[in-house]
TrEMBL record:
One term of GO molecular function: inositol monophosphate 1-phosphatase activity
Residues that coordinate or bind Mg(2+) 1: 72, 92, 216
Designated name of the protein: Inositol monophosphatase
UniProt family annotation: Belongs to the inositol monophosphatase superfamily.
Residues annotated as transmembrane: none
Gene3D superfamilies: 3.40.190.80, Fructose-1,6-Bisphosphatase, subunit A, domain 1
Cofactor(s) of this protein: Mg(2+)
Superkingdom, taxonomy of origin: Bacteria
Pfam family, one: Inositol_P
Gene Ontology process terms (BP): inositol metabolic process; signal transduction
Lineage of producing organism: Bacteria, Pseudomonadati, Pseudomonadota, Gammaproteobacteria, Cellvibrionales
Signal sequence region: none
Keywords (A to Z) from UniProt: Hydrolase, Magnesium, Metal-binding
Length: 274
């Protein structure tokens, strides 16, 4: 696929993310009418998640009928042919903040093909911020180029930390302790995709979560790499697409230090994907 073809796909992915984000924002403005159900401990879903995903799926199918679809709310039904491009979608990343009337949620899209993430989009409708990247094309925020932080020390900014109930609490708490002892400070928003976008934009110096699903991390991790940072999260195997992985992303200058903070209790490889 040529750079021009990828640019066209990226432009359409941004349009689709905006459509989904606008719909989800309408649901967010009327939270009292939503039915909320639990998928597990601290893992919620609403009509907004389901309906936003269906809207995104329909738009993608209309524009790219030859592509497969992997969404958070319909992942059990995922199927793709060998070599087929796949859109990987989280309709609302940060559902717990969403249902708590907190604005730290977003729409996340990635396009993957041939074992590589080619497009990443994270749209925050609450701030009307569109983070977008394509492989080899840099990262933008509302169409303007952004770069990861120039930080050289963990003390130079905030490190986002995520928590997953799919791993023991120690996998988050022990790296957090080591981060604080290294004069760092943590930040948690409830949306891993949005936090990774903030690393790409230089707002956070790094991010770590002991497990993220593909729809939360693949596109957002591409943002970081295209903004000059580093991230381990990439399609090293189909296992990552189906089961997720631990995620570490950071500005170039502090990636080794953050690896040292999390290394003892994660499967993060100190050799990042570039």
């Amino acid at each position: 696929m040529t750079p021009a073809e990828l640019d066209e796909r990226l432009a359409q992915a941004c349009e689709i993310a905006r459509i989904g984000g606008s719909f989800a924002a309408g649901c967010f403005a009327d939270l009292g009418s939503l039915t909320v159900h639990s998928k597990g401990v601290q893992d919620m879903a609403t009509e907004a998640d389901l309906n936003t995903e269906q809207l995104l799926r329909d738009e993608l199918a209309r524009r790219f009928p030859g592509d497969a679809f992997l969404g958070e709310e319909s992942c059990e039904a995922f199927a793709a042919e060998p070599g087929q491009g796949v859109w990987v979608v989280d309709p609302i990343d940060g559902t717990q903040p969403f249902v708590s009337n907190i604005t730290s949620w977003c729409v996340a899209l990635a396009y993957v093909r041939g074992g590589r993430t080619l497009i990443g989009v994270v749209y925050d409708p609450n701030r009307d911020e569109m983070f977008a990247a394509r492989h080899g094309g840099g990262c933008t925020l509302n169409a303007r180029p952004v770069r990861a932080s120039a930080a050289r020390s963990l003390a130079d900014g905030l490190v986002g930390l995520g928590y997953s109930n799919r791993v023991p609490p120690a996998a988050t708490l022990e790296p957090m302790t080591r981060l604080l002892r290294a004069d760092g400070m943590f930040h948690r928003s409830g949306s891993g995709a949005l936090s990774l976008a903030y690393v790409a934009a230089g707002r956070l110096v790094g991010y770590y979560e002991p497990h993220m699903n593909a729809w939360d991390c693949l596109g957002a991790a591409l943002l970081v790499r295209e903004a000059g940072g580093r991230s381990n999260a990439e399609l090293e195997s189909e296992e990552v697409l189906l089961r997720g992985c631990p995620v570490l992303a950071a500005a170039e200058g502090i990636y080794p230090a953050l690896c040292n903070v999390v290394h003892a209790h994660s499967a993060v490889d100190e050799s990042p994907v570039n």
